[in-house]
Automatic annotation (TrEMBL), chain A:
<keyword id="KW-0813">Transport</keyword>
<keyword id="KW-0812">Transmembrane</keyword>
<comment type="similarity">
    <text>Belongs to the binding-protein-dependent transport system permease family.</text>
</comment>
<keyword id="KW-0472">Membrane</keyword>
<dbReference type="InterPro" id="IPR035906">
    <property type="entry name" value="MetI-like_sf"/>
</dbReference>
<feature type="transmembrane region" description="Helical">
    <location>
        <begin position="77"/>
        <end position="99"/>
    </location>
</feature>
<dbReference type="Pfam" id="PF00528">
    <property type="entry name" value="BPD_transp_1"/>
</dbReference>
<dbReference type="InterPro" id="IPR000515">
    <property type="entry name" value="MetI-like"/>
</dbReference>
<feature type="transmembrane region" description="Helical">
    <location>
        <begin position="111"/>
        <end position="131"/>
    </location>
</feature>
Automatic annotation (TrEMBL), chain B:
<feature type="domain" description="ABC transmembrane type-1">
    <location>
        <begin position="74"/>
        <end position="267"/>
    </location>
</feature>
<keyword id="KW-1133">Transmembrane helix</keyword>
<keyword id="KW-0812">Transmembrane</keyword>
<keyword id="KW-0813">Transport</keyword>
<feature type="transmembrane region" description="Helical">
    <location>
        <begin position="12"/>
        <end position="34"/>
    </location>
</feature>
<feature type="transmembrane region" description="Helical">
    <location>
        <begin position="111"/>
        <end position="133"/>
    </location>
</feature>
<keyword id="KW-1003">Cell membrane</keyword>
<dbReference type="InterPro" id="IPR000515">
    <property type="entry name" value="MetI-like"/>
</dbReference>
<keyword id="KW-0472">Membrane</keyword>
Length: 301, 281
């Protein structure tokens, strides 16, 4: 069927009216700011006036010489690795237990486990601050049940270990989401495979290693990369609420340092450069993880 | 054939682990409620798991609501969440429909553009967004946050809804066209009502994300009257180091949590399907 000139014109108008406003809007409020950030990163700029000094790559040079940036970078990757290990182990365990172990009430558990994912990270941070609180906190009170004398540990105060304290709330808050993803993937695996395995006498562990794991590996890869990206892009909130990057910058992450440099110390160009560093590291890490995880699939099959 | 664990000892152990984690999730929430009903003396004198003394201090809630202007923050959060969800949905649904049903020059590229943008960290845009909104005089306004949030959920909406529109049968549209419906008529009268389940899923995920959002809110709002709930919680926590009004702070946390818990309880299935559809591929 050949469309006439007017019909073609109408079709074009329809397509344009349904794509161009969205695209324009998206470009103004998401794409333009991203490009503008790349631009700002080349300037020395306090944000207070229109005066901007073009300094080329100086911000990046300063950034690489700034020990706090390295500290932040290290902390980001500490959280990435810690969260990937903690979340994936527990989410996988729960996903398998709730689909393949034949438990009653698995729907109930599933609903409960997802709850932390609907709560604001700010609320989670405040809540865990009270768990760690040295005077009225849950953790110290709990420990003093065993020591028989009051425990008064300042959990968020050891400079060398405070970053560890950010892992439990992050893992606690992240499990449900990845568990749901893995449950959906596991439910796609045909039952007949498990039935055949059972007839051959394979136990649950064998079934997990030889059926579940290889068949949901794609989804696991997606989950691991997603954890990495959300951590590099968003660990700022939990850090800011729980420690503000302290004590002594030991829990600083790139996001919190960006915020501090830009909106507290008015080095907007430097802040933008940290933003570029976040973009570059998350892209490089995505590619690296894709490669790394891809190889393992081949070895397994 | 019945699959599952058969060893009763193993079954008991795994069941116990599942129960322990349920407790680990629910206890902090129950604790929040109990602590919201205590006064400072009870915090200092008793173990954190002690039940609140009678009479329960429900007044902590009204105190936070009145003295700390939580009525205003609640309205701010409500308007901003509703506004940006609606705008984000309208914009993403229209584009998603065209991308799913029409092939035109650059349609593949456009789709890729939205998907690729999900890889870019949003913090990168934070500084320019502040100056952009500043120059548009939209700092400290509902409208400013609505625009930014709507834009931030757009790509996710396009991604999920393209998949959803593609899953709908083509015959319905074809018969509508034969009956003489225009492109717009087909979309608004046939496709939009049919895609309601997909739209609801995307809307709910967006509502949860926007209601809980903190970073953008903190940067784009500096007038205390215009704070959203999470932004105020962050500020309140810092202030509480000097004021030590713990009971009211816990009440404030609950005021922030309860609406999302209600949404979650009502729409669990939708949320799960949205997550499954929207996992970054």
């Amino acid at each position: 069927m050949k469309t006439s000139g007017t019909a073609k014109w109408q079709r074009g108008l329809f397509i344009a009216s349904f794509t161009i406003p969205t695209l324009a809007f998206f470009c103004v409020f998401t794409i333009y700011p991203v490009i503008k950030a790349l631009y700002y990163s080349l300037f020395d700029w306090s944000g207070m006036s229109d005066h901007m000094d073009f300094i080329g790559l100086q911000n990046f040079k300063d950034m690489l010489r700034d020990p706090i940036v390295w500290q932040a970078l290290g902390n980001d990757y500490f959280l990435v690795v810690g969260k990937i290990v903690g979340i994936m182990l527990l989410a996988t365990f729960f996903a398998v237990a709730l689909t393949r172990f034949g438990f009653r009430m698995s729907g109930f558990f599933r609903s409960i486990y997802f709850i932390p994912n609907v709560i604001s990270v700010v609320v989670i941070g405040v809540l865990w601050n009270f768990i760690y609180n040295p005077q009225i906190g849950f953790l110290n009170a709990f420990l003093s049940l065993f020591t028989k004398e009051p425990v008064a540990i300042t959990w968020l105060g050891f400079t060398s270990h405070t970053i560890w304290m950010l892992l439990p709330p992050s893992v606690w808050a992240g499990i449900g989401f990845y568990m749901i993803l893995l449950i959906a993937a596991i439910q796609n695996v045909p039952d007949s495979l498990y039935e055949a395995a059972e007839l051959e006498g394979a136990n649950q562990w064998h079934q997990f290693c030889h059926i579940t794991l290889p068949l949901v590996w794609e989804q696991m890869k997606v989950s691991i990369i997603n954890i990495m990206m959300t951590t590099l892009n968003g660990s700022f909130v939990i850090v800011w609420i729980m420690t503000e990057g302290g004590p002594d910058n030991t829990t600083q992450v790139m996001g919190s340092y960006l915020y501090q440099m830009a909106f507290r110390q008015y080095h907007f160009g430097f802040g933008a450069a940290i933003g570029v560093l976040i973009l570059v590291t998350s892209l490089i890490t995505t590619v690296a993880l894709q490669r790394l995880l891809h190889r393992e699939t081949i070895e397994m099959s | 054939m019945k699959l599952g664990l058969r060893n009763p000892a193993a079954k008991t152990i795994f069941y116990a682990i599942l129960l322990v984690w349920s407790l680990a999730v629910l206890y902090p929430l129950a604790w929040t409620l109990l602590d919201a009903l205590k006064n400072n003396a009870q915090f200092l004198a008793n173990a954190p798991w002690a039940l609140p003394k009678l009479p329960l201090l429900w007044s902590n809630f009204s105190y936070v609501w009145d003295k700390y202007n939580f009525d205003a923050y609640f309205v701010n959060s409500l308007v901003i969440t509703a506004g940006s969800t609606a705008l984000g949905l309208l914009l993403s649904a229209s584009t998603a429909y065209v991308l799913a049903r029409y092939s035109f020059k650059g349609s593949g590229l456009l789709y890729l553009f939205y998907i690729a943008s999900m890889m870019v960290p949003f913090v990168l845009a934070l500084i320019p967004l502040f100056f952009l909104l500043n120059s548009l005089h939209l700092i400290n306004t509902w409208f400013g946050l609505i625009l930014v949030y709507a834009s931030s959920v757009l790509a996710f909406g396009v991604f999920v809804l393209v998949g959803f529109f593609k899953s709908l049968p083509k015959e319905l549209e074809e018969s509508a066209v034969i009956d003489g419906a225009s492109y717009y008529g087909t979309f608004f009268r046939i496709m939009l009502p049919l895609s309601q389940p997909g739209l609801v899923t995307v809307a709910i995920i967006n509502v949860l994300n926007i209601w809980n959002e903190y970073v953008v809110g903190t940067v784009l709002i500096n007038d205390p009257k215009q704070y959203t709930l999470p932004v105020e919680i962050g500020v309140l926590q810092a202030e509480m180091q000097y004021r030590t009004e713990w009971g009211p702070l816990f009440a404030a946390l609950l005021i922030t949590i309860i609406p999302v818990l209600v949404v979650y309880i009502l729409f669990q299935r939708k949320i799960a399907s949205g997550i499954t559809a929207g996992a970054v591929k």
